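Explain this record to help learners:
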Amino acid sequence: MRRPSLSMPAIALLALSPIAGAADAPLPAVPEGWRVELVAEAPEILYPTAIVAAPDGTIYLGQDPMDMPGPPTEPIDSVVSLRPDGTITTFASGLWAVMGLEWIEDTLYVVHAPFLSAFRDTDGDGRADERRDLVTGLGPEKPGFSGLNDHVPSGMELGMDGFLYIAVGDKGIPRAVGTDGETIQLKGGGVIRVRPDGSDLQVVSTGERNPLSAMLTATDEIFTYGNDDDSKKWPNSLTHHIVGGHYGYPYEFLLRPERCLPIVSGQIGGSGTQGMISKGDGLPGRYLGNLFLCDWGLQTVFRVEVSPNGATFRMARREPFVTAGEVPDFRPFSIAPSADGASLYLVDWGIGNWLLSGAQTGRLYRLWYDGPDAVAAAAEPETLGIAALDHPNHEVRLRAQRALAGRGASAVGPLVDLLGDASRGTQGRLHAIWALDAIGSPEATAALRKALADADPIVRSQAAKRAGLRKDSGARPTLERLLDDPDPVVRREASIALGLLGDPASAPALMASLGDPDPTVAWSIRQAIRTLDAWDADLLLAALTDPGRRAEALKLTDEAWAVPVADALANAVSALDDAGARAEVVGNLAGILLAYPEWDGEWFGTNPLAGAMPRKTEPWDREGMRLALIGLIKALDDPDATVRGRAIVGLRPAGPTVGPYLRARLDREADGENLRALALILGDQVDVAAVPSLARLATDSQTPMVARAAAVDALGNMPGPDALKALFGLTFDPDAPPELVARALPPLASSRALPPNDLASFLDREAPAIRIAALGALAAVEGLPEHLKARVASRLDDPDPTARVAAIAAVAALGHRPAVPSLVAIARSADVDPTVRSATVRALAALPDPDALPVYLEALGDRDAGLRRSAESALLAIRDRVRPQLEARASASDLTAPEAASLERLLTRFRPIVDWRVIGPFARTTARVFLGEPSIDFSRTHSGVEGRPISWQERRGDPRTGRVVIDDFKGGRGDLGGFGYDETSSPDLAAFAFAEIPSPTDREALLLFGSSGSLIAELNGEQIHAFSEYAGRPYAPDSDRVRVLLKAGSNRLVMRVRQGIGTWSFSVQVSEPGQRLLASPPAGEGIEALRSFALAHEGDPARGEAIFFAADGVGCAKCHAADGKGTADIGPDLTGLASKYDRAELIRSVLEPSQRIATGYQPVLVATDDGRVLTGLVREETADELVLADAEANLIRLPKARIEERRVGQTSIMPGGLAEALCPEEFADLIAYLGTLTAPAGEP
């Protein structure tokens, strides 16, 4: 790539000069015909963010030390000015995080949340001496509460309409106030606008994640570019924003896409920052209207072309424009045109990190085009008059527009003439609209209303937009006619304008327009009706009963909390003949029975899908709720079972008040699924009055079994003798179905109504289901007498394999050691069922015993990773008694890699590290503050979470495990939202720990790590280990095993440990010197070798299918069904998998299961009041109980009253290491089988 010569003439008159030595500086790569030069770099500029060019060629550049050396909660940011002569001056200081800049006339506008401020230099010394805060509360009070000033209000741009458009990240705006007292609230991310004097503050759009700049086209169409979230479900999003648009983040885009507008495009990965749209004339015409988007994560500036798609846009082209080239730490943050549009200024953050105390980073580049089709920018006009409105440079046109508006009445005539002259260029006529709008005289307003009928649709759309912004009621009749305009953009703007007018008289016209063929226009019409809040029950009912408008009316009334809406929906239940339509109406009624709580201003974090979804828990209007309730109760008697079912489920949130209606329906209902729902709801509500009906249902042989089973479960949840009597009658009825008897036993046993001796009698029942239930119930009895434990053990030879497994699990749960010989015999039997053997090994692992040593050793080489871990845990408990046998096995020549790893752990003696220095809490986004530093000053005070001063302190670990507890660092409200987080996010505070590991010699050693959350560990300045899981994990002293090299003397261990879940703690143990460590696996083994082999070899699908379903194999079928085979539902059914993913992705999904977790299968972690942390998938949930399925498909029942924390994890419960027991050929076979799992015939 050619570098620019310092002696070459300037391309633009006002371009900055390159810095000394720029000719030798490494440069990013640019396309053919483009050139780039380095204009400034650190330390002259530091941590640069937003950028804007003033007409005189001065560049204003934001600097953000708050997010590099910090602290992130103190206003230490600044704006510097770079003049054409190369001088750099601090223009303004003492700012919060500077993320947006705009220049208007002689004023610099700065977004530095929580402020939008205007700065002027009134004395010409190059420094601002006047500051005016135009908007306060622009974001959280301290946007850096999370440790970083991200997800906040950021880039802005001035539109033709006279508004500043500002992108807002999803920390949102709890309450912002403009200069005229106007207030707004924005939950989540989106776009807002405000006039340059701070008035007319408005929310434009919602439902974005973290857009960092608002970019406007020459016609003020709004675009943003944001970044993906931690769930990797929401992408780096290019979004076209319309007024009233909602784009679905964080929930609807995935779960209810009909409730949001789609983005233009997106990709997973990267980190979108700021951008611009080319609107000048200094570049070849093919670049006009292009979007230039910076991506900090992908180290690329992308060039994007979009094309109209009805009332919105589609992506037409996307390609890299600037890449890292010779600059390895190239991190583009923002890009802006020069004043004449002939150059682009590109801001480079210069490092892939933040919150680093010692780094000085930042660069500013200038790019220009000198290819064969280069064009010269048009000269500045001598005067900013009417002719300047047609200037090819957008910035010149804007300045001319403002200048003409400033002339007032004298400019109206020429502007009206221009606007009415269809022979003139469209762009100048648009600027005439907004100049006339700013003047606002009667003559100007008359011309603007006339423009609503202009032949040019762009003129009509801008005139419509103007009428809405100014609430021009006189334009209402014409705007209503424009709802039928042939141009979709005109219809969009007309509907938006009618909503902004606030005149309820427009409601009939808008209602008549429901069902517009353009989805964006249809959205705007619905949103206008909602904005007007002029609901009319009769009009709504007419729309709901009109087949042509019904679909739109249903969308309109979805989550519309208004009394007329409830009235119309309730009446539609009776008025509609179509059962499917009635079901939709009932669903909408259920959706407005309760409302969401008011937003408390808290952020939902970087991965809201990992938290609890918002729930409707609040009343909203007594009459509206009454009408909704009446409609749902009416639907209980609908002739269609589906409609009744929706009503039943919809009434559940109403609580006990609807008990009489549900009980009455229970006695009349014929549909089995509806009966099941009624029984479960009544049981969940502990409706004792329903016991007689539930008892009849449970014993009625004509009732579908699914409903009878639910009735038994509901009776088991009821207090009092009547429910027990019903359960006893069923249990001892010789004709009762075994399935129902089995369901009745656990509640009878847990309530102690059925004594253990009587319970044991059911072990002899003929039906296996009853024996299984009795075994499970006896296993849960605390203090079960020995003779009854022996009765349980007597079922170890049960002829039914499932009952046999239940007996094995019960023996283990009861800790019945006399059963060990029998268990060993079962495990070593040559013809034992694989499932029975697996359960037996796990039972023996729960009862560590040297007599079971052969079983444990064999299990260490098992294909099942979970079984290997169980055996290892048992051997750890008895290793001192069986060390010779372990050493003998370790010397064998046929060890597999998993066996070698386990035996190494078992034979190695470890010493816990107990002497630590710790410091915290820091915010969750704290970077590697102490990691990588050659030394640490332990006497220094640091700024912790929320800017609190914190210092290093000594802390000792447990002498046995080394566990260091730092739960006292949580503070605030602790796990449930301390330090600015609410309970749906992951607080995940950070702390740092330091210890020294002495070693007598240079040696190889093993380290064992345990933690309650994510951690990074460095040894002697080199990273040796990282574990990442924001939700945390169950603490164990040996969760991670790492092989390291210790040097003779003292070795420095520095760790960052995050909070995670449960008691905040960590531990490290080091292997003692003088021990032989087993050899590492030979080169060529491991997941990369498996990946490479499977990519290069096709494999045999038939053999792969056998591996998948083998009961004694890696255990795929334990959790997954596939291709119509298998019944497991712990994980998703894999049928159709190969239709979605290529071979490389199939391989990755097996080797790295946590990289892509299907929606609905994210694990839940819970911390209980007895100190346990459990993880699994939610299988059932009631108001009082949570049922999880663990990685072994075991069900764990937890009373909710005992759960202290609950989070959704990002680590799959699919055990890691599943593929370790497969040779490369077998792994390729398995992938080959997965590659056959295409969608069944007839499915897309």
Observations:
- Residues 537-596+617-666 form one domain.
- The longest helix spans residues 865-890.
